[in-house]
AraC family transcriptional regulator
Amino acid sequence: MLPFLLAEIAHKENNVPLYAICVGSHDQKPIDRPNGYSEHQLFLCNKGSGVFKAEGKKEALLTPGMAYVLPAGVSHSYSALDESEGWELGFVAFNGKASGAILEMLGERILSPFGISRFEPLWDKLTSLWHLIDLNRGNAYWETSKRVYDMLLFLLEEAAPAGRFDKVNSKVAQPNANLDAAVKLIHNHFEERLLLTNVARAVGYSVQHFHRLFVASYGVTPQKYILQLRMRKAKELFEEGSGIMVDKVAQQLGMEPSYFIRMFKRTYGETPKAWNKRR
């Protein structure tokens, strides 16, 4: 963890096109900012999962290996999905005359979580920025600006549409037999209490490496992929079995009833009971 660190820029922000305000990483606690934050923010999820709610946007899930860009002044709140599990969130607050152009280039990625196929290098850049500021405080504002720009440029490259630019790690776009085997395993067992640890181990990957490969190839996290399968199956079960109990459906999908109801409502906008009444 990197404790919250304020960058003492000594009012020299006008000398550089980009500058950091604060940086760090921690076990994120619930935050509610109805008036938004004064600076732009980049969030990186290293462990656990959490939910962002921003004005005018649907609830967004941020899981390991994903990034989230939040512009200044946007009303928002965020919190861990499961407080007992924890949610390690890295962050950089930044601003400067060049920030508007970069945010514009990110386009639809703003306020929308997206996977980072090369997450470790980006996390290392955040850590490096933290140590630079910690050691030099406001005396390294030129180098700090360079590193903020480096992080954002890295983000732009990751956010670029597939095929638009040549990427360093083009291998992730190639067919992957192990990943195909993992997807087949998920489809065969998503109705059970499926652990990603077991899926990753079955195809010879660490959980983190499997997660990042999956996001790079499918555009969603393994957790979200499994959840989508379960929610579609839930609708099928409700349609096929008139009067089937919600608890029974949750059990058949390997989910706790309360969690199932919450995820069903998040996916379809209403509880299973309300959906059943309406159809």
Observations:
- The domain at 2-159 is CATH 2.60.120.280 (Jelly Rolls).
